[in-house]
Design a protein that fits this description.
The protein has two domains: about 200 residues, Acetylglutamate kinase-like (Carbamate kinase, 3-Layer(aba) Sandwich), CATH 3.40.1160.10; about 150 residues, VC0802-like. Helix 3 packs parallel to helix 5. A hairpin with an 8-residue loop joins strand 10 and strand 11. The protein contains 14 helices and 17 strands. The strands form four sheets. A seven-stranded mixed sheet has the order 3-2-1-6-10-11-9, sandwiched between helices. Strands 13-14-12-15-17-16 form a six-stranded antiparallel sheet. Strands 4-5 form a two-stranded antiparallel sheet. The protein has about 450 residues and is α/β, with parallel strands linked by helices. Keywords: Amino-acid biosynthesis, ATP-binding, Diaminopimelate biosynthesis, Kinase, Lysine biosynthesis, Nucleotide-binding, Transferase. Belongs to the aspartokinase family. Catalyzes the phosphorylation of the beta-carboxyl group of aspartic acid with ATP to yield 4-phospho-L-aspartate, which is involved in the branched biosynthetic pathway leading to the biosynthesis of amino acids threonine, isoleucine and methionine.
């Protein structure tokens, strides 16, 4: 068996966390290839190394003295080296890096957190260091060059039985450093898993997988032990974030499961993400996630079906303002366009005026301060009455549903409610489908 093992920023934040990583890697010989992020926060008042590197780049751009920032970065890495008794000449490399900063790109600067962390981790584990700069290749449009990347990674796995690999970056065709979006170390691990045809991609973080609801809203929610990629996409989009959502695609295509695990509690079961799961979920739903900050533009037009392309016209107007559409619930003579509040904040009146001019609706209005809550579960399609049960529970608790949308694959029911009812709605849905079913 082969496991790609990726450790996030909190898992490599200091020497004590390095020790936990070593114990985890050594406990299973299948954990042959290790991916690391840059050191994260050691406590709530601390800074992530990547944030400090972005700050260093800002100092570079504005020609401001950055000596205080470089001292903090230098100390973080040297503390890890000293406490673990490592011999890696990290001081020299750091000095060379800081000297080159004025001539470096932002991407190269912010990638150095992973680079230096991987160098230290490689020595600590006794594994070779393999640089992502030499293996992960991007096309000019910033997509992965799979042919070149796979060839290079497979060459390294032939050369080395084990290695440590920095996450977050690769290089362009002209050998310039290119980074992923923040959290992109998860994507790196996913790429390695696909290119090595791994059996499992383990993603170690500071939580024991996904929970059925936000613990800040629902007290002690049940853990999700198994979830499909489709369900995860729905929950992640609505804010249930443990894994970078782009990390799903490389392994999903190769049907490689992702296992979310907790570095601080390695004994916990965690969450397995896999599209074809034989695990039987005891509940009709898998999880609930939501977020506030939406608005709904309501359009009513008598005999709308007789006017071909009417909804397309409305969407064209929205597109003219570069606004992303979240949902389009509709009826025979009306429809609503749900958008993020922040996207229309500076253009609301112009947008409505243009819609009125282009569409000539009988009624046009906008509702602000909405929250969207998605109830997700692959079991819902096999359990008649699930949506009725959900709507009845909200009605019994005096929660007014402003909008309803259901995915065509029947694994997601999204409701829109006023922001004041946001947390209450999540609690009611959780109680209805989890607490009551447990009794």
């Amino acid at each position: 068996m082969l496991k790609i093992t990726k450790f996030g920023g909190s898992s490599v934040a200091n020497a004590e966390q390095f020790k936990k990583v070593k114990a985890i890697v050594q406990s299973d010989p299948a954990r042959r290839y290790v991916v690391v992020s840059a050191p994260g926060k050691r406590n709530s008042s601390d800074n992530k190394i990547t944030d400090l590197l972005y700050l260093l780049d800002a100092h570079r751009q504005y020609h401001v003295d950055a000596s205080n920032v470089t001292k903090i970065i230098r100390k973080r890495f040297l503390d890890i080296k000293t406490e673990l008794g490592l011999k890696q000449p990290i001081e020299k490399e750091l000095d060379e890096f800081f000297a080159k900063v004025p001539r470096m790109s932002q991407a190269e600067i912010v990638s150095r957190g992973e680079y230096f962390c991987a160098k230290l981790m490689a020595e600590y584990l006794g594994f070779p260091f393999v640089d992502a700069k030499d293996t992960i290749r991007f096309h000019s449009d910033k997509t992965i060059d799979w042919e070149a990347t796979t060839s290079r990674i497979q060459a390294k796995t032939t050369q080395y039985e084990n290695f440590v690999f920095p996450g977050f970056y690769g290089t362009t065709a002209n050998n310039q450093v290119q980074v992923f979006s923040r959290g992109g170390g998860d994507i790196t691990g996913s790429i390695l898993a696909r290119c090595t045809n791994a059996d499992v991609y383990e993603n170690w973080t500071d939580v024991s997988g996904f929970l059925m609801a936000d613990p800040k809203i629902v007290k002690n929610p049940e853990a999700i032990t198994h979830i499909t990629y489709s369900e995860l996409r729905e929950l992640s989009y609505m804010g249930a974030s443990v894994l970078h959502e782009e990390a799903i695609f490389p392994v999903k295509e190769a049907n490689i499961p992702i296992h979310i695990l907790n570095t601080n509690r390695p004994q916990d079961t965690g969450t397995i993400i896999q599209e074809q799961s034989k695990h039987k979920n005891p509940y009709a739903i898998t999880g609930i996630a939501g977020k506030p900050g939406f608005a709904s533009i309501y359009v009513y037009k008598k005999h709308m079906p007789n006017e071909v392309g009417y909804i397309r016209k409305a969407l064209s107007v929205v597109e003219d303002y570069n606004i992303s559409v979240e949902h389009i619930p509709s009826s025979i003579d009306s429809f609503s366009i749900v958008v993020a509040e922040q996207d229309i904040r500076d253009c609301e009146y112009e947008l409505l005026a243009k819609m009125k001019k282009e569409l000539k609706p009988d009624e046009l209005k906008i509702t602000h301060d909405l929250a969207l809550i998605s109830t997700v579960g692959r079991n819902m399609m096999d359990k008649p009455g699930t949506s009725g049960k959900l709507f009845a529970a909200l009605g019994e608790n005096n929660i007014n549903i402003v909008m309803i949308a259901q995915g065509s694959d029947e694994i997601n029911i999204t409701v829109g409610v006023k922001v004041d009812d946001f947390k209450k709605t999540i609690r009611v849905i959780y109680d209805t489908f989890v607490k009551k079913e447990n009794k």
